[in-house]
Design a protein that fits this description.
Immunoglobulin-like, 3 domains, seven-stranded mixed sheet, 4 helices, globular, disordered C terminus
Length: about 500
Amino acid sequence: MKRYITGSIMILILLGIGGWVFVQSPFMQESGDGEINTDENGRSILDLPAVEAGERPVKEFDLTAEETSWTIEGEESVDAWTYNGTVPGEPIRVEKGDFVRVELTNELNVPVTIHWHGVVLQNRMDGVPGVTQDAVEPGESFTYEFVADNPGTYWYHSHQHSSLQVDKGLYGPLVVEGDGPSVDEDKTFILDEWAVNQDREDWTNMAGMMMGSMNGDGEADTKQMYDTFTVNGKAGSAIDPLEMEEGETARLRFVNAGYQLHRLVFPEGSMEMLAVDAEKVESSSGRNVLQIAPGERIDVLFTKGEGAEQIAHTTDVEHAADMKIPVLSPGGEQTASSAPETDTEAVKGTSYESEELLFEDIPKADVSYDMDLSMGMNMGEGMTWQINEEIFPDTPPIQVEEGDIVKVEITNEGRLNHPMHLHGHRFQVQSESGGGVVKDLINVKPGESYTIYFEANNQGEWLFHCHDNNHADRGMVTIVDYEGVYSPFELNDVNNP
C-alpha cells in the first residue's frame, strides 16, 4: 500500500541536535492508513534485539571528552573540546567483523554523546540524546557497542548540541578495514574550519549573509563564520607532510567534519576515487580536483610522483592557503610550488556508480515523501532552515513500516547548500555516470533536486537532517519513524549546554 506522509502529533523539547531535540515519549502519530500508534501498543527501542559479541573478536577503546588548549599553527591556539586530548580524537581502527566496544567518559562540564556517522548499527547505539539515549552527564560514562560489518571510512562526533560541540573539536576518525587495493600507505585526513582570530559569528542575524547568498555558491554563511581551514586539526605549516617514495601508492581517506564544501587539487594524473561514504565506486582517473561536502567521506588512490608535491585547496576561496598537505620523499623538504589549477572539473560524491547497488532497477515505493528545503524568518529568532516550510519540531516525519521501500524527493529551494544525512540506513541516488550511487549523505545545492530510495530495514527512530549543523540547529531536521516502536528518552534542562 502506498502511503504519503502528511503530519503528526509529537511532544518535543528544545536543545539537542545543536538546538532542538526530538522527544518521543509519550508519542502519538497518525499513520497513512488512519490508525493511531502510541507507545502503549509498540515497544521501546531498548527492547529491540541487542547485538552480542559471540565469537567475534572484541576491540575495546576508551574515549574521554575533555577540554584542551589546542595549537592550530605557530602560536595560534583555541580552547577545544576533545576526545582524548587531541583534534581529531583518537583514531579508531578495526577490522570487518569485529565487535567494537567504546566507553565514553565525560570530563567536560556539559553533557555529550558519540554518534557513529555512517555506521549502520542498532538504534540504541546511535548517540542522539533524547532519541536513542540520555546524554552523558559530566562525570558519567556510557558504553557503545556495535559490529563493524561494513568496511570503509567513517567518523564519530558528538550529537549533543552538535553545532557547538563538533565545532569545538569533538570528533575523530573510524576506519573499518577489510577491502580495497594493496597500498603502501593508508592515511586519514579530517578537514574542518575554525574561528581562530575572530569570534564565531552569530550567523542567524548576519547583515551581509542574505546579500552574500546571492552569489550562488551556497557558502555565504560559513565563509563569514570561520577564518582558518585545518587538516587533522592543524593549519598551514603545521600540517604533517605525507611521506612517500616516487611510485608508491596510498589510500587517502578524506572526511569533511566542517560546514563548508572543500575542493582539493591533486598533482595531475595522481588520483583515482575508490569509495564514497564507505561504498566502493567504479571510477577512473583523469580529473585531479576532489570536492567533498560537509559530513561526507571520500577515499582516493594516490600515486606519488617525482619530487616534492602537494595536495592543496583550490585558490578560489579565502583561507585556502591554510589547507595544503605536503607530499614529500622521506627526508625531503617542501619546496615552493605554484598555486593549484582550478579550471578542472571536480569529482564528487555522485560522480561515479557504486560497485554494489541497493536496487538494480528503480523500485516501486511503499512510502513517498517530498522534502522541500528552504530558508525562513522567525520573528525574534532570526533565520531558520525549513523542511516543507516548517522547522523542527513541526516538520512532518517520514513514517514507515519495516520492509517498506521509501522514496524521498529532495529539492533545495533556498540559497545555501544543504548536505542531508540519514542515520541508520544507506540510500541510493542517481550518479552522474548514469547508474546508482549508494550513500548516507547527499549535498543538495541551491536549485538542485535529488530522488533517493532506501529500504526501511533497521527499526528505530532515526534522524534525517542537514549536516551543516548550524542549519539543523535552526530547524532542518526530521525523523524516520518506524511504526510499532518508540523512544523512551526525554531531556530536561540539565542537558542544556
